Amino acid sequence: MPQTRKRVPRAEREEQMLEVARREFAEHGYEAVSMDAIAEGVGVTKPMLYAYFDSKEGLFLACTARAQRELEEAVRDAMAHPGRPLDERVWRGIVAYFDFAERHREAWNLVYPEGSASTERFGSQVREQRKGLAEHLTGIFEQAALEEGLDADVARLGAPLAYAFVGAALALASWWADHPEEPKELLAMRLMNFVWTGLGATLRGELWLPPIPEEDR
């Protein structure tokens, strides 16, 4: 009696497709990856792959959106300590940012494919996906300003500051790709001093230092 192939639930199959596609896009770049290779890696037919994502472009953007969500969740969870001082929450977020870049290199290369053909082709869509992190930081900065008793109009300055903050983090992470010997903790502290203490104070040696963990006090 012939065996029937077990039907894989749609959500599970989609997860398999995204995992294989993410790895292929991150390792080889958008242009070099074929839908045939992805379908073969998943163990499905190419028509099924198109049925799920409509096109190669749709599959790539689904991969970048998922990677961006994972990055946002990592930073958001690290900063989710309303009772702690703002500088400590920002520090935790920075560490989580670089930790994600180090541990999830495939996802990082999809979120920030700087210099690749996909950057030019999908620049507007990928930039739109990145807004989530800056908007989350905007909310934290504005709330902190209000808690300090600042005027609501002043608190709204949190938006441009948040975008500048994310831009600085991206630039440093891109530099890190060419200097992998640098430990992520040192990068995080450099960025924290640059954006929190200020360039002038940092160069004068007026450094911000991370809080001592409670278990070490």
Structure notes:
This protein has 217 residues and is mainly α. The chain has a domain at 65-202: Orthogonal Bundle (Tetracycline Repressor, domain 2), CATH 1.10.357.10. It is 72% helix and 0% strand. It has twelve helices and no strands. Helix 1 (10-28) packs across helix 6 (105-111) and helix 8 (123-147) packs across helix 10 (158-177).
- Whole-Å distance between the termini? 68 Å
Q: Judging from the principal axes of the Cα atoms, what is the shape?
A: elongated
What is the succession of H and E elements? Answer: HHHHHHHHHHHH
Mean residue pLDDT? 83
Helix residue percentage: over 70%
CATH superfamily placement of the domain at 65-202: Tetracycline Repressor, domain 2
CA gyration radius, whole angstroms:
21 Å
Can you tell me the CATH class of the domain at 65-202? Mainly Alpha
Determine the strand fraction and express it as a percent band: under 5%
* Number of contiguous helices: 12
Q: CATH fold name of the domain at 65-202, please?
A: Tetracycline Repressor, domain 2
Low confidence ranges: none
Q: Based on DSSP secondary structure assignment, what is the total number of beta strands?
A: 0
Find the structural class using helix and strand composition.
mainly alpha
Q: What is the CATH architecture annotation of the domain at 65-202?
A: Orthogonal Bundle
